[in-house]
Amino acid sequence: MGAALGSIVGIAAAVFAPYAAAALSLTGIGATLFGIGLQMAVGSIFNKKAKKGGGGGVADAGLLVNKTSNVAALPVIYGDSSDTYPGRRLGGTRVYMQSTNNDGVTTGTGGNEYLHVVLAYAHGSGLANSVGAGPVAHRILLNDKVAWTAANGKVVSGHPDYDATEYEGYDFSKFDVALFNGCSDQTHSVGRDYSTFDDFDARKSDEWTSNHRLRGVAYAYCRMQFDRDTFPGAPTILIESTGIKVRDVYEIQQGTTGSGLYANKSNPANIIYNYLTDTTFGKGLADADIDIDSFVAARNYFNTINLDFIGVVQTTDTLFDNVQQLLASCNANLYYSKGKYAISIHKQETFSSSTFVFSEDNILGEWTISLGSKKNRFNSMTVNYYDASNGWQPNSIKVDDASYLAADSDVLNEGGIDLPMVRTRADADRLGKFYLDQSRYTTVVNFKASHEALQLDVNDVVYIDHAVPGWNDSNKKKFRVSALVLNSDSTVEVTLMEYAPDSVYIENQ
Q1: Distance CA 304, CA 360 (A)
Q2: How far is the C-alpha of 464 from the C-alpha of 302, rounded, in Å?
Q3: Paired strand residues for 400
Q4: pLDDT digit string (tens) for 83-100?
Q5: How many angstroms separate the CA atoms of 154 and 325, rounded?
Q6: Strand 461-465 and strand 357-359: pairing?
Q7: Which of 208, 226, 279, 384 has the most CB atoms around it within 10 Å of its CB?
Q8: Around Cβ 298, how many Cβ atoms within 10 Å?
């Protein structure tokens, strides 16, 4: 694909440096004109490790179990709830277990009447306490039975979710919980969103003192009265929770302050912005290092096509991998240009008489055309996602196209992609169809151009009008800019990716 493209791929690891241009030793005007897309830098977003069934590369990874550890990483929950999905379902890490009497005393008569479990399940927001700042639990399940809901409390006889047959033998009146959202100044009272205890401080274990704050950690303090039928042993506790509070990029652009800054915490653009700027588990970029206008445009597009996120980011994975998964789950690209990080969407664009044209007049010297590897031109696509309708278990669907299979002489070539922030079959299907269709249009062009190309940016659309490949006059070909690198002689190394037909894009499906 040409020496220039090889050098671009070589600096992929530097794309997330605060100033990626430094990786190429560019200074001054060179630093302001360097542009590269993250997805282009690492090649295909298709996960080569993705399997073709059983959830593939989207795995449980311990998200739905209770474990005991003092070093286990906590996930970050993103997204809001809905009438259909109360929140992302998670297990957690038991950081404390003890038995006490009714008054929380760990020794003496009746000291084993109640079991106490403190379950840490996610990162908090990192903000000082405010309503809804961190993860907010909407339901708690014990041994796969709903034990408590935020709307109606404990699931006992008379509760809207109570079913006499299903709940036979389960007496959840013997269960109490206090929920903490993980704010930065958390105490026994600050950051506590809910409590079913008649007096939490009086009933908690006497070992759980005021020094046990778990600041920045969302957790549930659970107490269960011993009952041989209801709780013969420590139950598996599952929490369905909404995500952390994130800033709305539109409100950032407008200079909004206070509570109005936080809204729409399921929008992918808002979530990606949060992950890039968060100083605890994200990259920690400053707002000034991000092109806010590009994020607002992406936010509005996601609202238009009704695409949102409810899911988790695993803090055990690398920053690079997590950003790739976020981008793949919403068909986006992150790039660095003119000294800032920007986001763009692979969507239908407008071509007109004013669209930039590469021709014999501005293409200099040799150029390289790659028609793409047959291995990456798929006729079937396995999409792996977390299925909210099936208890958030890993699931897979297959997207096929008979016309592609016929064009490939009936030789099956199946790709796989992991979309961990996708929760419904419908979204998995439409994103999978886009990636399948997109894989059929992978022509890449690399050449040196005159300084005119400096007016372009990553993801801009252009024409090539050139007689050598036969893309001229009425047959001029549409492309999308993937990378721009300024050379020392003021020429520009340009990498273009073929623009797919309009019918491929999600908004037209």
Answers
A1: 39
A2: 30
A3: 380
A4: 777 899 999 999 999 999
A5: 37
A6: parallel
A7: 384
A8: 25
Length of the chain: 509
Farthest-apart Cα atoms in the chain, separation: 93
CA distance 235 to 255: 47
Between CA 141 and CA 490 the distance in angstroms is: 63
420-466 pLDDT, tens digit per residue, is: 999 999 999 999 999 999 999 989 999 999 999 999 988 899 999 99
Among 25, 246, 233, residue whose Cα is nearest residue 132: 246
First to last CA, the chain: 32
Query: Are 423 and 310 contacting, i.e. CB atoms less than 8 angstroms apart?
Result: yes
- At residue 94, the 3 state secondary structure works out as strand
Beta strands, E only, 293-443: 311-313, 332-337, 340-345, 357-359, 363-370, 380-387, 393-400, 414-418
Cβ–Cβ contacts within 10 Å for residue 412, how many?
10
DSSP 392-403: TEEEEEEEE-HH
Please state, in angstroms and rounded to a whole number, the distance separating the CA atoms of residues 309 and 70.
Answer: 30
135 contacts 218 by C-beta, under 8 angstroms:
yes
> Can you tell me whether residue 184 is helix, strand or coil?
coil
DSSP annotation of 33 reads T
Residue 337, φ and ψ in degrees, nearest 5: -155, 140
Q: Tokens in use for 4?
A: 């220039």
CA distances from 509 to 66, 399, 505 (A): 41, 14, 7
Tell me which H or E stretch contains 251.
Answer: helix 249-254
Ranges of the chain with pLDDT below 70: 1-57, 60-61, 108-110, 130-132
Cβ count within 10 A of residue 429: 17
d(CA 113, CA 174): 11
Helices (H), ranges, 380-504 = 402-407, 425-438
Give the pLDDT score at 125. Answer: 84
Q: From the centroid of its chain, how far is CA 49?
A: 19
Sign (positive or negative) of CA dihedral 157, 159, 165, 167: negative
Question: What three-state secondary structure class fits 103?
Answer: coil
Q: Which residues of 49-79 are buried (b: 16+ CB within 10 A; e: fewer)?
A: ebbeeebbbbeeebbbebeeeeeeebbbbbb
C-alpha separations of 346 from 38, 48, 144, 480, 501 in Å: 13, 21, 40, 9, 12
CA 347, CA 363: separation in Å to the nearest integer? 27
Determine the Cα–Cα distance for residues 426 and 322; give it in Å rounded to an integer. Answer: 23
Question: What pTM does this model have?
Answer: 0.88
